[in-house]
Write a structure and sequence with these properties.
With 445 residues, this protein is an alpha+beta fold. The protein has eleven helices and 14 strands. Strand 13 and strand 14 form a beta hairpin.
Length: 445
């Protein structure tokens, strides 16, 4: 390695020093890089292994690498869903002493998928809408903390499965700026960028024959405006109530909690004659259910996954008559008797298919469909075995999404019945939420 490197990193990463920084990124040897699908980028991007995890490396200018690194660190400090910055590498030179571009290093988000990986077959209408809705939620969260993205697109976003939906994470922050507050004009500009970029991306895959014929790229892209407006107004608009309608204050808080947002405080003002009250919520952040599940069980999940797991926890408490026990005690019993046995039942060679919370959610879905088809209450342990044998083993690995060779399937794996214990007798199938699909969930992803 010729020349001296200047590496800025938040933590000590000795493995960075052995990477071939003296070579342009597009010339790195095959034994160094990891083949992962990635979104469309104006920069050269490669993936590599670093001390047991995968990193993404992007070549750019010194100024942009340093700026994006600092921006991602600032966004992480305020709990914005984004990739984790690892380092900035500057001062690169080749063997002849010629300068090379600076590199931004970020940590690859486990179990995440770029937009490109989701249309490897044909992108269905339901999946497309859920992607757009998750991007709208991410944009609302970013705008709430004063972040102007400047390059909103599906390709600049990573998606993780979230109990029938998707959770969106910001990947590319090089055009972003962080302000105390955004003006309406800045928010509308970001939305217009999103609308144009999404339409272009959908038209691109439509031209490649990978878009369902029923999907209108322009109409779908414009739906982000409606999703965004609904969320933004629900979170930020003041509400005028009559004195006799004060009960609606709790209703407003409940609606925000159901959307996954916590309230830090409510600003309440009365008019001069005291007949009306104006309330203005101050939203802290999304993750209401995820924080509650983390507090009760230690499980760190996406928001919809947390909502589904909490529903199953509550159903478990009712089924086995534990309603009079402390919530923390019930949560511990559910974790050790229900959740953990399901996860332990997954063979080791399949545990990179999906993250544990998503496996549990899909087992509940699979059990519900089995019960509907067979006209009986299918025990959970039976549903687990059937799900592993007939569904999970045929999914691609999503811990690190790699395009598998055609026809690469795993032989059926037997599960020992006596190794799965669920503590209490299995109750009826879990209740379905109003927003859950009526068709087979496997056809929607």
């Amino acid at each position: 390695m010729s020349g001296s490197l200047n590496i800025t990193a938040a933590t000590v990463e000795p493995g960075l020093l052995v990477l071939p920084w003296n070579l342009p990124l597009d010339m790195w040897p095959d034994d160094t890089i990891t083949a992962l699908p990635k979104g469309i980028s104006r920069h050269i991007v490669r993936f590599a292994q670093l001390d047991g995890y995968v990193i993404a490396i992007k070549e750019t200018t010194d100024e942009m690498a340093q700026s994006e690194y600092e921006m991602l660190r600032n966004l992480q400090k305020i709990d914005v869903p984004c990739v984790e910055p690892v380092a900035v590498v500057q001062g690169r030179k080749d063997e002849q002493g010629n300068p090379l571009a600076a590199a931004l290093v970020t940590r690859h988000l486990k179990f995440s998928m770029p937009f490109r990986a989701l249309y490897s077959t044909t992108l269905r209408p339901e999946t497309t809408q859920r992607l757009v809705d998750s991007l709208a939620l991410l944009l609302v969260r970013l705008h709430n903390v004063g972040f102007f993205w400047g390059d909103v697109s599906l390709s600049n976003t990573l998606f993780r499965r979230d109990a029938g939906s998707f959770a969106a994470y910001l990947v590319d922050a090089e055009t972003g700026r962080l302000y105390d507050n955004l003006t309406p004009g800045q928010r509308e500009h970001d939305l217009e960028i999103a609308r144009v970029n999404i339409a272009g991306e959908l038209m691109d895959i439509q031209a490649g024959g990978k878009l369902d014929a029923s999907i209108d790229p322009v109409a779908t892209s414009e739906s982000i405006m409606a999703s965004y407006d609904t969320l933004w107004h629900e979170l930020n608009d003041p509400e005028l109530l009559k004195q006799s309608e004060l009960w609606r204050i709790n209703k407003r808080v409940q609606r925000l909690n159901e959307l996954g947002f916590d309230i830090e405080e409510l600003s309440i003002k009365t008019d001069e004659d005291g007949t009306h009250v104006k309330i203005q919520p101050k939203v802290v952040d999304s993750g209401h259910h995820a924080r509650r599940l983390l507090r009760l069980t230690g499980l760190d999940t996406e928001e919809n996954q947390a909502r589904r797991l909490l529903n199953d926890l509550d159903a478990y408490a009712a089924t086995v008559s534990l309603l009079n026990l402390d919530e923390e005690v019930v949560a511990h019993l559910w974790l050790t008797r229900v959740f953990e046995p399901v996860i332990r039942a997954v063979p080791e060679n399949l545990d990179s298919k999906l993250e544990p919370a998503e496996v549990f959610h899909q087992v509940l879905e699979h059990r519900w469909f089995m019960s509907q088809k067979q006209g009986r209450d299918v025990p959970l342990n039976e549903a687990v075995r059937d799900y592993i044998d007939n569904v999970l083993q045929y999914r691609r690995d999503e811990e690190v999404v790699i395009n598998p060779p055609t026809g690469a399937f795993t032989a059926s794996i037997g599960i020992h019945t006596d190794s799965i214990g669920f503590g209490a007798e299995d109750g009826p199938p879990p209740p379905r939420g109003a927003d859950e699909p009526e068709v087979d969930w496997r056809d929607l992803v």
